[in-house]
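re: the backbone from monday

yeah here it is again, tokenized this time
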């Protein structure tokens, strides 16, 4: 049996036990109560940290994290599992979008944070100091928010460390999700990028869209998490066959250059949003004051991985992100692959993947 107590702040789980509660994070001008479940196994193994609720309006990941916390039994666990279902309480409980209502900051653009910064930067630093920095494996759960259609995918970043990149690729392929999008560098302020820079095997898991919550999606997410925990040796393996994966890299991100009403010309159905060629019309932005139209074209070809479903947009709003099949030759020339959003939009957007 492992003889190490699992502790986060004042919350402790002795070997062979589970503890649930909240830990208070000091954010300077305010505090946040962070809910946690600590599962300390009976046998040695890796430490896995799972977060959800980094953004408001993403409900299915939170539901899945809570369900997983209920299911895990210390007697069946090797190592330690830390589950944080609501990593950003202000954005989750008071907001419904990616930015926090406290300071207007998207936390998934400022990791690993700044302990002397604003409230959201301090929260990012707290999450890294208390959770991620002690992890061997980090899984950050997201979905398409209330204004976003999205194809399910897993994302991870290449670090240049062959052993770390191989382990993360194996982790990314273990969730039962066909599409894996590879970021060619570990730059940027996303949680999994910042974790990768610190030597943690880290992935982003995006399942679901439009903030919807439903039983089949929740069960599918939990099944994927259980399979990933088997892959890394936290749970005993079973005889499940691994889902074949398709590897992609980002080809372009499309952001709004105007304020107005967004009328996309791609489907809202994540199962059928398809591929576009460079120059294809993605949609139009209409100024409600005078009816002027701004046509939005695809800056590159690729498959639409996620897109804006909401009506109102402003300069910098991410409208779509495109990916192309992975060609290992592109790994030596990441400058040829414009990244989505440059830090303003979804989670695979920022000077990164």
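seq for it, each position gets an aa:
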């Amino acid at each position: 049996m492992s003889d190490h107590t699992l502790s986060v702040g004042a919350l402790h789980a002795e070997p062979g036990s589970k503890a649930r509660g909240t830990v208070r994070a000091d954010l300077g001008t305010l505090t946040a109560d962070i809910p946690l479940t600590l599962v300390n196994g009976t046998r040695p193994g890796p430490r896995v940290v799972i977060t959800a609720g980094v953004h408001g309006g993403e409900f299915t990941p939170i539901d899945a994290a809570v369900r997983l916390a209920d299911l895990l039994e210390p007697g069946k666990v090797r190592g330690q599992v830390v589950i944080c279902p609501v990593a950003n309480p202000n954005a989750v409980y008071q907001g419904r979008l990616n930015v926090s209502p406290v300071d207007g900051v998207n936390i998934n653009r400022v990791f690993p944070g700044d302990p002397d910064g604003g409230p959201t930067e301090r929260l990012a630093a707290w999450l890294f100091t208390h959770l991620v920095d002690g992890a061997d494996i980090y899984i950050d759960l997201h979905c398409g928010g209330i204004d976003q259609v999205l194809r399910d995918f897993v994302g991870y970043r290449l670090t240049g460390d062959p052993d770390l990149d191989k382990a993360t690729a194996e982790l990314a392929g273990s969730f039962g999700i066909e599409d894996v999008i590879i970021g060619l560098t570990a730059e940027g302020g996303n949680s999994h990028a910042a974790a990768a820079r610190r030597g943690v095997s880290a992935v982003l898991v995006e399942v679901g869209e439009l903030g919807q919550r439903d039983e089949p999606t929740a069960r599918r997410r939990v099944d994927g998490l259980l399979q990933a925990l088997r892959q890394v040796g936290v749970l005993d393996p079973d005889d499940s066959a691994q889902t074949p994966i398709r590897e992609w890299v980002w080809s372009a991100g499309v952001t709004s250059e105007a304020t107005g009403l967004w009328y996309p010309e791609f489907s809202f159905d994540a199962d059928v949003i398809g591929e576009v060629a460079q120059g294809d019309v993605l949609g139009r932005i209409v100024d409600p004051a005078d009816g002027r139209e701004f046509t939005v074209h695809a800056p590159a070809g690729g498959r639409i991985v996620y897109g804006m479903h909401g009506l109102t947009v402003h300069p910098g709003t991410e409208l779509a992100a495109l990916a192309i099949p992975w060609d290992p030759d592109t790994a030596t020339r990441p400058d040829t692959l414009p990244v989505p959003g440059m830090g303003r939009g979804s989670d695979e957007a920022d000077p990164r993947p």
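The radius of gyration is 20 Å. The helical segments are 59-71, 89-94, 119-130, 162-172, 191-197, 215-231.
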